[in-house]
Amino acid sequence: MTARSLDRLERLRSELAHPRLDVRIVAADLAAGGAAQILRAVAGGEIEVGLLINNAGFGAGGDFTAARLDRQLSLLDVNLRALVELTHPILGAMRRRGSGAIINVASVAGFQPAPYSACYAASKAFVLSFSLALWRENRDTGVQVMALCPGYTDTHFFAAAGVPKPRRVYMQTPDAVVAAALRGLRRRQPLVIPGWPNRLVVAATRLLPRRWVLNAAARLFRVRRELSG
Ligand SMILES: NC(=O)c1ccc[n+]([C@@H]2O[C@H](COP(=O)([O-])OP(=O)(O)OC[C@H]3O[C@@H](n4cnc5c(N)ncnc54)[C@H](OP(=O)(O)O)[C@@H]3O)[C@@H](O)[C@H]2O)c1
Asked: Is residue 17 a part of any domain in this protein?
């Protein structure tokens, strides 16, 4: 398991304690060379990765020119550059063994541009496209690649992005998202969008005229930024 916060990783390791589990943790910042650090820990511990879950990510919004450029660049480093850096050698090792799976966490935000969250939605569009392409490239190799596209999920995501947690909208629990992902993995699905309301929104964004979708997304994301002050 890996993240920046060593204390939270250690807490989680104690919660997961089980005689048949050997939980190793690596505190690494994916915006600052953390992917290489994780790969060194995997190679050094002679760990065979059976399932890689590229989950780390964050959102940062606002009018693009007003938002801090360094934060937008860190977002790209974490949400997509580190994901590619981790996927390349680990997928290669899975291919040589002929088994393994990768879950890349994208978002429903990856299906359309999001004015006032432009880099975030674009990063998730990259993850979605990249993962589906890799699913097809690896279809007959025994290795599975999946894009997981959750909608609003009750996590620290909103606090980390500095926006209020949405209320009175469809919000899933992390457990529901994980259950849908594991079900999708068993069925060898290339794409999992947990929850029918999220699937409905994605279908609508593909059917409606692009300008309408952009206007609706602009209203949604601008209001959320304004609420955050
Ligand atoms: N919550 C939603 O509504 C929602 C919807 C669609 C997609 N997603 C996606 O779901 C994924 C998980 O997010 P979440 O909702 O669970 O949010 P979260 O509670 O904020 O979790 C984000 C995770 O990423 C790690 N992380 C963030 N920056 C990092 C960095 N620089 N280096 C290493 N690790 C880093 C965090 O750990 P540390 O802070 O300790 O580093 C944390 O474990 C993200 O990719 C997000 O885009 C979330």
From this structure: no
Q: How confident is the model at residue 61 (pLDDT cuts 50, 70, 90)?
A: confident
**Cβ < 6 A, ligand 1 pocket:** 3-5, 8, 29-31, 34, 55-58, 78, 105, 107, 150, 152-153, 155-157, 160
* d(CA 140, ligand 1 centre) in Å: 31
Contact predicate 43/19, CB 8 Å: no
CATH of the domain at 151: 3.40.50.720
Instruction: Encode 154-186: b = buried (16+ Cβ within 10 Å), e = exposed.
Output: eeebbeebebeeeeeeeebeeeebbebbeebbe
Probe target for ligand 1 pocket from 1, 2, 4, with the most ligand atoms within 8 Å of CB? 4
Domain count, the chain: 1
Report the alpha-carbon distance of residue 227 to residue 17 in Å, rounded: 41
Q: Is position 32 within any domain? A: no
39 located within any domain: no
User: pLDDT (tens digit, 9 = 90+) per residue, 162-214?
Assistant: 888 888 678 999 999 999 999 999 999 999 999 999 999 999 999 999 999 99
Instruction: Answer whether residue 30 is part of any domain.
Output: no
Tally of CB atoms within 10 A around 148: 26
**Domain hosting residue 184, numbered range:** 52-227
Give catalytic residues, as residue numbers: 120
Distance 171 CA to ligand 1 centre (A): 16
Checking if the pLDDT of 95 tops 50, the result is yes
